[in-house]
Write a structure and sequence with these properties.
alpha/beta
Length: 217
């Protein structure tokens, strides 16, 4: 199976169009974060999301952890998917399902150690997909993605084999390593930001090379 591709850190409608034209299935739109690249205003997220045609996924990356905070953030953006980059409670998942029944939920798991596998297994029943990323939410300034670093793909593979929901792989992916990542993890989807950018801007040549590698067998 050829994995779906989500291009994250979209900063403009032009970048959204470039990603879609290259074959991306989803776009990541980054809200306010404690650290990391790609943050844009909620107004711009709303504008890009409104302009993206179906069936392209529009993912709001939110660092909010309370149900009210997440719902309020979504109300300012109106994406079709919410990507929760920090851990939330079971009650929060249930509140989101009740309040936003038409919105898909994707939970980020920061793959650091064996406990990350348990975290993914416990989380899977409450979400539509899991996204495995590099990062460290335990730092004083939380690192919730966009690190440009890879992590232990053996753990990612173990998670993918242990849950029933689709799994996206993120963290340090680029044209030079994407085939290895796909071979080792076999994810439903892949997600990247810096790997197809130059000085923070989406680069058409890198993007097209990445997509070529994804589809190459």
């Amino acid at each position: 199976m050829i994995p779906r591709v989500k291009i994250c850190c979209i900063s403009s409608l032009d970048e959204a169009r470039m990603s879609i034209d290259a074959g991306a299935s989803a776009l990541g739109l980054v809200g306010q974060m404690p650290s990391g690249p790609g943050v844009i205003s909620d107004e711009l997220i709303f504008s890009i999301s409104a302009a993206v045609p179906p069936p392209i996924g529009t993912f709001l990356l939110t660092s909010e952890t309370s149900a009210n905070g997440i719902i309020n953030h979504w109300n300012r953006s109106h994406t079709n998917t919410i990507q929760l980059v920090d851990a939330v409670s079971t009650e929060t998942y249930l509140s989101l399902r009740k309040s936003l029944p038409g919105v898909k939920l994707v939970q980020v798991i920061h793959v650091q150690h064996e406990k990350s596998v348990d975290e993914a297994i416990e989380t899977a029943p409450y979400v539509d997909a899991i996204l495995l990323d590099s990062g460290n939410p335990n730092l004083e300034i939380k690192e919730l993605g966009g690190t440009g670093r890879t992590h232990n793909w053996k753990l990612s593979r173990k998670i993918r084999e242990s849950v029933s929901v689709p799994v996206f792989l993120a963290g340090g992916l680029k044209p030079e390593n994407i085939r290895q990542a796909i071979d080792e993890v076999n994810p439903f989807g892949i997600d990247l930001c810096s790997g197809v950018r130059i000085n923070g801007m989406l680069d058409a040549e890198k993007l097209n090379r990445f997509m070529y590698e994804v589809h190459r067998f």
